Amino acid sequence: MFLLKKIKIDIKGIITKIESKDYYLIPSGQDNEIICSLKGKFKKEYAMKKDKLFFTDFIAVGDYVEFEMNKDGTGVINRIEKRKNYLSRKLPKVRGASYRGERLEQVVAANIDNVVIVTSVHFPDFNNRVLDRLLVTAESSHLHPIIVLNKIDLDESRITKHWKLLYEKIGYKFISTSAETNEGLEILKKEVAERKNLFWGHSGVGKSSLLNKMFPQLDLKIGAVSQYSSKGTHTTVTSKMIKVEENTFIIDTPGIREIEPYGIRKSDLGHYFVEFVEYINSCKFNTCTHNHEPGCAVLESVEKGLISEQRYDSYLRMLETIEDDINF
Fold this sequence. Notes:
This protein has 328 residues and is an alpha/beta fold. The chain has 8 helices and 13 strands.
């Protein structure tokens, strides 16, 4: 008599949250979330990559995986599928720590359709240089950014029109919103429908308020804004993907204090300012940084008013802070 060997069937799922050694995921075609662990072989590969400077987070929110179910209702991940894309940044600096060499890469999320960059008119005040830095990070990852300017009910100085015209002129989707009056929410909800959407921005800009208004079942915590610093308090500790409607996912991220794009050299930065691209090939030097070099077509375009001085100023400020890392 032959005993039939029980064959374990691999189930596909998508990672929704990571807490220490626990990996939360939603199985394909389901809504329930289960907890998984990583198979031993992945831990060894993870350790090897971490020892080298070619490190990227081994598994991230948004990754597609295959797993086996245990009898107790948990699972074991045994395969991680290749990513379509991912958003990353340099690991934030820790206060008091010293740094030598390259800061490592931190993957925020993977397999994203939209990066919704949320800013605000006031509390905190709108800062185009921060927005441009976030746009460069998205562009360098070849992702589709959507700009949201929230709290337009506070726009007494009417700055919304200026910035909307500027960013729409260079090709970005720009949505003006108010979680107080509901203005712009239907437009934003249509943009994120049937997509995987990462919501990104500084603490206090109103990401959670917008998401709660569009999808009340989320019931996300809303942080207060300090009257002293005009900065928001963190209400989200780790990135988390939530299925809000059929085929519609929201990735809620912690409010950022700083953002440093990963893997960009000074000579590459101009390619991620989208309005520079049509002029770059006309520069006299191939290595032009569009700062002081003679025969720079980008600088000439700024002088002619073809490129916004405000965007060019953002570019120069970012150029000063970029570290030409060797290893990436």
